[in-house]
Amino acid sequence: MNDLIAILASVTVVSLIAFVGIIFTGLRESLLNRVTMVLVGFASGTLLGGAFLHLLPEALTPENDSTTVFLCVIVGIVSFFALEKFLYWRHCHERECPTHTFVYLNLIGDGIHNFIDGMVIAATFMFSFELGFATTLAVIFHEVPQELGDFGVLVYGGLSRKKALAFNFISAVTAILGALTTYFLAYLRSIETLLVPFAAGGFIYIAATDLMPELHKKAHASESLVQLIVILLGIGLMAFLKIALET
Questions:
Q1: Residue 191, exposed/middle/buried by CB under 10 A (0-12, 13-18, 19+)?
Q2: Residues in the chain with pLDDT < 70?
Q3: Do 234 and 46 contact (CB within 8 A), yes or no?
Q4: Burial of 165 (0-12, 13-18, 19+ CB in 10 A)
Q5: CA nearest 151: which of 6, 44, 40, 26?
Q6: What percent of the chain stands above pLDDT 70?
Q7: CB 202 within 8 A of CB 140
Q8: Closest listed residue to residue 41, CA positions, set 211, 159, 157, 202
Q9: What is the model's pTM?
């Protein structure tokens, strides 16, 4: 029971990080638009960095067949493509779509990622409290920049600031579901080997086909330079966290 309390406390704290975007809610509309574009670039970098530096290395273990792992990545990319096509048909009949489809894709991908985080936190706490606490800190350091980027993506995609915070939190709560699933149904732990590369495929698809093309709409040289810098910063931060958390 003590394990369950520690697990629930940890994943609740991790879920509340979704509200980190509240620091931007008081900005003027024009300033928010500029900040949002920077966050979109930053989110592109963190998604790519998260997929290639965190999720895929976690999936590519000696116990897992590499072909299966990359097949799951492909399934993730194709699945998110199919989801986007369906959501476009369902939500964007009008000439101007009020909410871009990548908003829903980002929420789905982030929800899967948070579900996995919850699974990992629960599993490590069940092994030892010290390891669970260290894992929770690692997840928190990883989630803060990602949630900041997610907030920018949701606002840029057409959601109001309040809705962006609310939907981002709903997506984050899946960490609690993942933790409870692992705690009560330990045999489902094997599902993680499929969910991790699937989520990586979703992150790659969102960054490469939805967010980066949005950045191309701002073609001014200075804006392009800023975009490149923040993408590299996003990737660099994920690389730094990867190195720092493994030493």
A1: middle
A2: 1, 24-27, 29, 32-33, 87-100, 142, 145, 186-192, 245, 247
A3: yes
A4: buried
A5: 40
A6: 86
A7: no
A8: 211
A9: 0.69
Lookup result for tokens 């993408």: 231
Find all residues with CB under 8 Å of 232, minimum gap 6, and list them. Answer: 45
Q: Please, is 233 exposed, middle or buried when counting C-beta atoms within 10 Å of its C-beta (0-12, 13-18, 19+)?
A: middle
198 is written with which tokens? 């699937």
Packing angle between helix 161-172 and helix 2-16, nearest 10 degrees? Answer: 150
Burial 14-46 (b: 16+ CB within 10 A, else e): bbebbbbbeebeeeeeeebeebbbbbbbbbbbb
What is the number of other CB atoms lying within 10 angstroms of the CB of residue 63?
5
Alpha-carbon span 40 to 214, nearest angstrom: 8
